[in-house]
Amino acid sequence: MAELDFLADPLLLKPLTKTRKENINLEDLSKEELIEKVKSLKLHVQQLRNVIANKDKSALPFAKKKQKGRKFDFNKYKRRRILLRVSYFGWDYCGFASQEDDGRTIESELFAALLQTKLVEDRTQSNYHRCGRTDKGVSGTGQAISIDVRTNLVEGVGIYEQEGYNGEQKEGDQEIDFCTVLNRNLPEDIRVTGWAPAPRLDFSARFDCDGRSYKYIFPRGQVDIVRMEQAGQLLLGEHDYRNFCRMDVNNGIVKFVRRIDSVVVECVDREVPSQDGPYDMCCLIISGKAYLWHQIRCIMSVLLMVGEGLEEEDVITQLLDVEKHPCRPAYQMASDLPLNLFSARYEGVVWQSEQVSMEFILKSMQKLWTQNAVKATMVRETLKELEKESGLSVVGQLDILTGRRWLKSYTKLLQLPVCPSLADKVRTVVKRRKIDITQKTEEEKGDEVEDMDS
């Protein structure tokens, strides 16, 4: 079968179901045997999830167990479709989205808090959507989710009467302070900084998002940020960014055209006023609507090469020419540590929070700032003493972020070995999974592939 068949129907490349992976003829089993097998597998999966979650100190297993042990009549309250703006530092988490084989994620802690506060009864019934998912180590101070929660009100924007509602709520009840209630039950590095009633009952934090912006913080080192920003302008517009991402063919992603609306590079904190220095902190800001897997980190890696004078600006244009360069050079993408989803934009959504809630958020974030600022200052003071004593001036601030090994001679980007092409990757997936187009089911045809944010 030609690879073009799979480019036309990329859902065929999605991972096989467990049933298809196992060499078991389920048709030979009786109904009772099938039921027992399903129960056994569900129990085994839950046990594995609990082991992983407990190892990573996730609060979700405890919240679920506590939920089962306490009776609460959710049908006494109506539901409200709302958006929550979530701010988190993802350095100590296994990414944002909960996965079957992951433990402590941002999502797991969010739902632990939602269950503990009785705002939701169960995730599967909450009509939950996230704006985008961030990878392990990536932060998101402007992430957004949409969800149906319990409300104290009987009418208002986003409020509806769910099936089974039997409440006797009175008009004029004060709405739940969602931010305060949740923040009291979340880890210090996760905060709900605002909420808003959804404009429609089918409003989605993902599909109704008008734009997403990322920030990438980095020390100046030897980078010319003006040159870096000029190179970034070549990325603007709609392009095929396959040479600026990791191809996620395993999940059926075979189209790599996206649009970038703006690229800005600026200095946000100078060590010495009115003077450039290697310890200045700078920031790359990229705005667009949707992104590919690791797209921002790959872009950042190439722009840093340009900023350090290792590459010319036109390398961007050459990498965007996928006819001439169909395979991505095997360069190291930039670190996940400084990457931050800082803004998700929605038309007509006005975020709100109570003053007492914002005071709590500011104080808890100031605590995080103090802990990290004190450490950074102690290290910087030590560096100053050592530099003064030795008389040396070493500029290696960026090494930990670029991942590039120190070499006597630098190999140009377009002279590096290349990664497999899209066609090669498709062939590999087809061969490994022994995919037969005649065996695809209607369910597989209808599955939707979710874009991966960087």
Average pLDDT, rounded to a whole number, is 86
Strand-residue fraction? 15-25%
**Unreliable stretches covering 5 or more consecutive residues:** 18-22, 437-451
Strand and helix order: HHHHEHEEEHEEHEEEHHEHHHH
Q: By helix and strand content, what is the structural category?
A: alpha+beta
SS element count, helices: 13
Roughly what percent helix? 25-40%
Biggest sheet layout:
5 strands, antiparallel
Question: What's the gist of this structure?
Answer:
With 454 residues, the chain is an alpha+beta fold. It contains 13 helices and ten strands. α7 crosses α8.
Features:
454 residues; alpha+beta; 5-stranded antiparallel sheet; 13 helices; 32% helix
Describe this structure in words.
- This protein has 454 residues and is of the alpha+beta class.
- It has 13 helices and ten strands.
- It is globular.
- About 4% of the residues have low confidence.
Fold topology:
Layout: H1 3-8, H2 18-21, H3 31-55, H4 60-69, E1 79-88, H5 106-116, E2 129-130, E3 140-150, E4 159-160, H6 178-183, E5 190-197, E6 211-219, H7 225-232, E7 237-240, E8 257-269, E9 281-288, H8 295-307, H9 315-320, E10 339-345, H10 355-390, H11 399-402, H12 422-433, H13 442-446
Antiparallel strand pairs: 1-3, 1-4, 1-5, 2-3, 6-9, 6-10, 7-8, 8-9
Helix pairs in contact: 4-5, 7-8
